[in-house]
Amino acid sequence: MWRVAGDGWRALRFGILSSVLCLLISCLTGCDRKPAGKEVSLQPDQQPAEKTANLPQDKPLAVYQNELLDLAFETATKIPINPHLTDRSRVQANAVTLCFELDQPQRALRYIEKIGDWRRGEGYADYAFYRVQHGITNDAQHYLKFAEEISAITDQDWGRDRIWTVISKTHTLLGENDLAEKYKSGVDMSESGKVARVEATLCTEETLDTQTQALDALIVSGNFDLVKNALYAYAELFDRFYENTARRSQIEDKIKADWHPLPFFIRIELLMEMSGFALQHADQAKSRELVDEAKTIMDGLAWPAEYYIPMAARLAICRFEAGDEAAARSLATGLLTFYNEHELEILNTDRSKALCSVAEALKDMGDFSAALAVYKQAVDAGAENKNSRPRAEDLSAICLSMLKHQMEPDAALWARIREIKGALGDPW
User: What CA–CA distances, in Å, run from 392 to 67, 397, 402?
Assistant: First the structure.
């Protein structure tokens, strides 16, 4: 297992962090710590009215899941708009994202309409994208129109770019390539490459050469974001052409040959993504091979605990799913010991996130009681901050984590969650 190096590492810690922290934050959180933008203020009659025909319906959730989802969004909404609009909207948007993952489009739409910055526009675009993904193309343009109108009034270019990227992805799914290109060409390179992943999911044998030529052009540019997005698009091609062993091997080799400009954690994420695709094709042996390769990279690195624990927890889940259950359980339980030994080295704003990742791994491996205990520890860790805003962020994230991983709180945990939510207030 990875170990923290001795005093030499501690001495170098801040020097290393200064060179990678911005990159990690950018890649892992989407640059969401930008200055707050102005609130989007649509009049009631400007809200996009849903038509009654062909609505994408919410799938049933368990009672506790419904409560966790509403509680997560309500907690985010308690964060005051002034001066925390950006943080409030970001945490609200996290709940919206999970709504789409859990096939809750109508609930997502209700949440979206309560978001106060440009993310409302991104949410409408995401809703249109969801509809098209699920074969409900009527009224998609209706929501894309509202998304574009919000993009026009935001005072943050990067927010507009995020909206336009989803609009472009939606037009790509619709086969409206000219419109897709119009929006893609108008955004920063860090966003435009994301459309390539959607294009890859539509790729055929006839269009593969054209697709790979376009991706190779992004890689040759040397731009970090373009290279990263191109390789994730190649990962989609790895999935799409999985049954063609020769094609798949060529794509895998291409990813590994061209990932050298990227930091190690992105290489690990690419390997875990391909491992997941292998499992979807019932190829457990290939999945384990890719997991082993990711582990080899991790074992050669020394990261601060707050970055190592979530990544190692995800890798443990991948290893478990790939059939190496004993090693996966050992890693997951070892991570909790590791956290307890290095807790004081982790900022209090990062502790609940680290613990949540361990709880997720334990729950996905079927250890309900251990996962519940770690979730309780995460809730308490998130409540330590004297300011309510980070407490609200952590509590909302924990509720979403439990929902996603189908972890039902017991009576004591429900009481603690509601106690923390009820106590939120000044100072924020």
Answer: 16, 8, 16
- Using DSSP's 3-state secondary structure scheme, residue 162 falls into helix
Model confidence over 317-373: pLDDT tens digits?
A: 999 999 999 999 999 999 999 999 999 999 999 999 999 999 999 999 999 999 999
Encode pLDDT of 108-137 as tens digits.
Answer: 999 999 999 999 999 999 999 999 999 999
Nearest-10 crossing angle of helices 245-258, 224-240: 160
For residue 242, being part of any structural domain is answered with: yes
The length of the chain in residues reads 428
C-alpha 248, offset from chain centre: 26
Residue 3 forms part of a structural domain: no
- Kind plus residue range of the DSSP H or E element containing 260: none
The residue written with tokens 């106690």 in the block is: 419
Last residue of a domain, one of 240, 270, 302: 302
Contacts of 389 (CB under 8 A, 6+ apart): 79, 84, 87, 428
Instruction: Tell me if 359 sits within 8 A of 398, measured CB to CB.
Output: no
DSSP 261: T
How confident is the model over 34-49, as pLDDT tens digits?
444 455 555 434 556 5
Domain count, the chain: 3
User: What per-residue confidence (pLDDT) applies to 50?
Assistant: 57
Give, in degrees to the nearest 5, the angle at Cα 141 between 135 and 146: 130
For tokens 């040759």, the residue is: 220
| Residue numbers in the chain where pLDDT is lower than 70 | 1-54
**Could you list the residue range(s) of the whole structural domain that residue 239 is in?**
197-302
Give me the pLDDT at residue 49, please: 56
14 found inside a domain: no
Helices 388-404 + 411-422 axis angle, to 10 = 150
2 falls within a domain: no
Mark whether 134 and 272 lie in a shared domain. Answer: no
Asked whether the beta carbons of 130 and 152 are under 8 A apart, the reply is: no
Considering 192, 223, 255, which residue would you say is the last residue of a domain?
192
